[in-house]
Design goal:
30 strands; alpha/beta; elongated; 17 helices; 8-stranded parallel barrel
Length: about 725
Amino acid sequence: MLPQDKASTQGEGGAGNANLISTTGRKAAPPFMVLPGSRFPPGATVSAEGVNFCIFSRHAKRAELLLYAAADSSTPFQMILLDPELNHSFFFWHVFVKELPVGTYYTWRMDGPNDTTATGRRFYPDIELLDPWAKAVSDTLWKRQPACSEQDSSSKSLRAIVIEPLPGTATGAMPCWREPDLEGAVIYELHVGGFTRHPSAAVVHPGTFTALKEKIPYLQSLGITHVEFLPVMAFDTHDVQPGVAARGLCNYWGYSTHSFWAPHPDYCLDPVRATWEFRDLVDALHAANIRVLLDVVFNHTAEGGETGPVINFRGLANDIFYHLDVSDRRRYLDFTGCGNTVNCNHPMVTRFIVHCLEYWVEILGVDGFRFDLASIFARGDNGLPLANPPLPWAIESSHILSRVPLIAEAWDAAGLYHVGAFPGMAWSEWNGQYRDVMRRFVRGDPGLVGEVATRISGSADLYARDERKPTNSINFITCHDGFTLYDLVSYNSKHNEANGEDNRDGNNDNMSWNCGVEGESDNPAVLKLRWQQAKNLLTILMVSRGVPMLLAGDEVLRTQHGNNNAYCQNNDLSWFDWRFVERNADMLRHTRELIALRQRHPSLTSNRFFTGLLVPGRDRVDITWHGARLNEPLWHDAQARILAFTIAGQREDEEDLHVVLNMSDQPLGAPLPSLRSGCWHLAIDTAQPAPADIFVRENQMPVGGEFYPVGSRSVVVLEARA
């Protein structure tokens, strides 16, 4: 111990001490010498001389750092009590531990005033806290239910890990000159664990970042440009209701984050190398020309409500990180449906979030983010919406984040709805209105053709007025939350009994249609119609302006047997069953060719709204609308279920497109627009059996005559050329 160091240290005989290797490469043994350390940066920062620890807690009066040799060590090998004079600066507690090894596990204990009613401050001197800035964590000992009821968490706490820093930045990271918009993008939403967990995946390490690398050729073959991962920031798999846990179920989706800077340990072969494994995956995807988006959850944390466990924020700065009831600050305001709400627009919390996102971009190579329940970002300290909330503007004005796509789920669980009006300018949004109207139209609801046309055109009614663009609209039919595509055409009602909540959970209004039979059927006519309806939905999605998003598995008609809330199903119900790739190869082929058709037509991926004016250098307007007759759209017909449109090619070498959507139950002799030269060629007819349902360009046959027979409940796409 150096004479000037007042931080006290106490060594104890934790398991595995003999194996500790210091940052200098020498075998090291406790107790380690300590220095005052620095208040920047927060977290554990490794250097050649040792490790600097820093943590934020504005009102703490006492801080103690506990060091463990292993994830399951029963006792710390060293406890360091910080000196308030030497180890405390501007609400930060800090200490430097000389020659401390990489791979050391650590927790914090903090003490301070408890005045939950008046101030909302909570301190738990006997509970070990997880560093919110940890770059890697272990949940080996974590047990949520005991942690919710006991005040001593040493035997079941989450632990942070001191890790070797990643060198430089990720390879293939988005260059600073690239525009952040998503023009031409096709997003594929997938669950990292579930994509390779099924035995049919035939990978070496199922359910991991490493396993996903083996499936990159499949992603390339689809033609998608971006993967959007469900949460990969470390989350609490135990965060489910007791009745759900009693069934052996867990929090599978991952919307219960506790460590925003750390990859989820269950997706890693070695938690100590979590950041390396994640960045290896990102680098591999970049090498395949696929970008990486993360679904992130900054609206609430795994600590839940009043009866939830103390993990980190609650025991460090409860009154700063969470929205509390002003009349009784023991109570958490819950705008998320998850027990608490992050106080995103507090300056300290805003800084935490922005710096965290920058880290995932700069160091881990991520190309953008989708923000869960992002309308929370508009709520001020009192929970009320702000006209100009700081966080959304701080994110989009960051010199790092301003060059990556930002996607908002533009609503929250308490009724705040921002689709078409999310604060800021650069944000894209999950377009829930697109999803809803397309589901209703394809199932056969009448009188929707006007809104369908608006959504196909990029939702100008939502975005054009603020000088936004079609790429502000993320168009989707399905996502992780709700029915899969096949279930959408196979079930009228949800069937969530397996979740253990008596089918009370999940959305009751799915805007679905079972094609005449609820659930599984061996009726050939029903099965044919279901495939046709699924193709209708995907085809409409791919001929719409905006950014299409596919749910992983929809391209092979993956089913969850009517479960529309499979958040707790880490099993066959949710996993990608790779046998469907062969079993439903015709649907896979249809999806691949749809994406290919979209990508070869700039008129579909253009980031401009249609104007109805002549295309420069062409004798056609950019889009013309039709009904059962040419140039007579049925805008005011309350029974209309037919919409057709002609899109002019934007360049001399791009063919015009003619699309007919017949969602009525009667066939239609659809009139075809006249051409100055050449003729129409059939690209897609969803009423036809494979392989006649979609043709590659070279195999398309010319369509003779002035009409084309369009079957009931089908979509036809034609391309014009000589």
